Each structure stands twice: as C-alpha cells, then as structure tokens.
Amino acid sequence: QVQPVESGGGLVQAGGSLKLSCASSVGTFSHYAVGWFRQTPGKEREFVAAISWTGGSTNYADSVKGRFTISRDNPKNTVYLQMNSLNAEDTAVYYCAAPRRAFTSAQGMGVPEYDYWGQGTQVTVSS
After folding, report:
1. Which of 1, 82, 103, 106 supports an S-S bond with 69, CB 3.0-4.6 Å?
2. Residue 22 dihedral angles phi and psi, to the nearest 5°
3. What is the mean pLDDT of residues 19-48?
C-alpha cells in the first residue's frame, strides 16, 4: 500500500514551466506504476500521463504530448511531471495515483484503474 503526496504546484505565466513531484509517505513507491490526472471545477478528472514501475514505458494524453514529460527516480521513490509551454487550459488540480497491484507495466488512462490517490496540487497558468 502507498499514499501518494503531490508537491510543486503554483502560479506560472503562460509559456512557462513547472515540475510536479509525487512521493509516498508509506510503502515502496518505486514498485508501483503511477499516473497523473487533472481536474477543473465541474469537469471529470482527466488523464495526463502515466509511467510503468520501471520507468521504461510511458503514456500521455494527446493534449500534453510534446509539452509534458513524466519520469521517475526510483532510488528516491519519486515520480515527476515536467510541464513546459503551459497555457491557460492546463490550469487544474493535478493528482498522482497508483494502482492496487505493484510491479505492473501498465500505464492506464482510466480513473478506475487507480486505487491510491493524493490530495492534489493546484496549478494555475495566467494568460
């Protein structure tokens, strides 16, 4: 079992960059695939990116391909989301999540595929 905790959100101007981090206060986070999602008021939570537990496979939403990069540092038990060329449409609360099973290579895009969720970190892009 893990408990993801996000950090690194904030206010940034359009065209700028932010790097989010996700770690776990319990368990061995490096054993789990991790997904990043985001949500704005009144909308469903949407997939952003995911990475396998080894870091060898990644998956991205079309809306962020070429701008966002997901990576992980397993010795540090941390997953990152580097966000470049941010625009106002990227404004949201960003969540990281892990599935119930460890040691999976799947990089699922669906909310139901993840069982452990963080509290989220706000990203606001000013235009």
Report:
1. 82
2. -140, 125
3. 96
* Token pair for 6: 């996000």
DSSP labels for 91-117? -EEEEEEE-SSSS------SGGG--EE
- DSSP letter at 67? T
Cβ 86 vs Cβ 101: under 8 Å: no
**pLDDT, tens digit, 9 for 90 and up, residues 47-64:** 999 999 999 999 999 999
Q: What is the pLDDT of residue 107?
A: 81
Beta strands in the chain (DSSP E): 4-7, 10-13, 18-24, 34-39, 46-51, 58-60, 68-73, 78-83, 92-98, 116-117, 121-126
User: What is the rounded CA–CA span in Å between residue 83 and residue 94?
Assistant: 11
pLDDT at residue 108, as a whole number: 87
88: left (phi over 0), alpha (psi -120 to 50) or beta: alpha
Q: Which of 95, 80, 81, 100 is nearest to 27 (CA)?
A: 100
pLDDT in tens, 61-79: 999 999 999 999 999 999 9
Indicate the DSSP class of residue 26: S
